[in-house]
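chain below, 345 aa
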Amino acid sequence: MKPFEIVRLNAHTCPMTATERRILEGAGRLIEVEQLSECADLSRIAAVQIVSSYLQAPELERLTSCRIVSRLGNGCDKIDLAAAAIRGIIVANVPDSFTAEVADHTMALMLAGLRRLPAMERLARSGRRAEDVGGIRRIADLTLGMVGFGKIGRLTARRAAAFGMRIIVSDPALTAEAAAEYGVGAVDLDTLTETSDVVVLLCPLLPATRRMFDAGRIARLKPGAVFINTARGELVDETALARALESGRIGFAGIDVFGETNVFAEGGFPVTHPLFKAPNTVLTPHVSANSIESREETLRRAAEATAGLLCDGRYPVNIVNREALIAAGKLKMPTETENAPCHQP
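prediction:
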């Protein structure tokens, strides 16, 4: 028997690639399941590969032999990072293999709203032309407000700048140098909410950002504003957003992420939430990161992170809970050396 057991979660809703399987099978005995609850004995598992499942303290406490949780993507808000650190479990991710795809998808949703594509397509399919311009405005005259300005935000800004848009950003980490380099203005969230023609959410889900766009803040958006979310559904009060669309307070919403609906549910997901019935929307099922190239790269790099640790004792390049591990005395790694051999107490 191979020395390590590696569990690949979400294996049905996000099947493994041949490259990913080859890498992981070279590192241990591979178990492919949808949820961790399908595994009878968690104590033998040395690594968990996770796409979209939750991994909280009760499960982590039972993973007594686990050394790494490798997130096949970027956001780790479904993983209890502190609980993992206490147990000495490294949580790694792949944060930059699909930045271009998410930026492209964000722009696609924005352009669909600004050019009123859903309404215009319905007219075309019914054999009619629009009787007027349908509220379409010149894109170069509009202000784009970006909440969050990480790698995806910066690529999105480059794309939006090509359309001549004025770009403002709300992000506490935005430096004056970055603002000057990308030609954006730094503003507070209130100013962004009230002055942007288009609001785009590209920030992480944190305690401070959860439901940051609640009913009160949504009511402060400019009348007819376009609202785009390709970050996390939990950033928004989705019921309030649906009501604003129904009332016409918001002109359009492009949504790729959902907080109250699990679009990764095996066998499909319910569409009973009011957001799915709201007018003037384009909804996509959490696919902004998708491309043939990004999928292959993301799954390969996540598998390599696990194999590198289990087989060669190499730390992953991207350790999400690095500081918590160090504080807990579970990790000793020079900050300037990403791939030094592991020294875990």
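The CA atoms of residues 22 and 278 lie 44 Å apart. DSSP finds twelve helices and twelve strands in the chain.
thats it, cya
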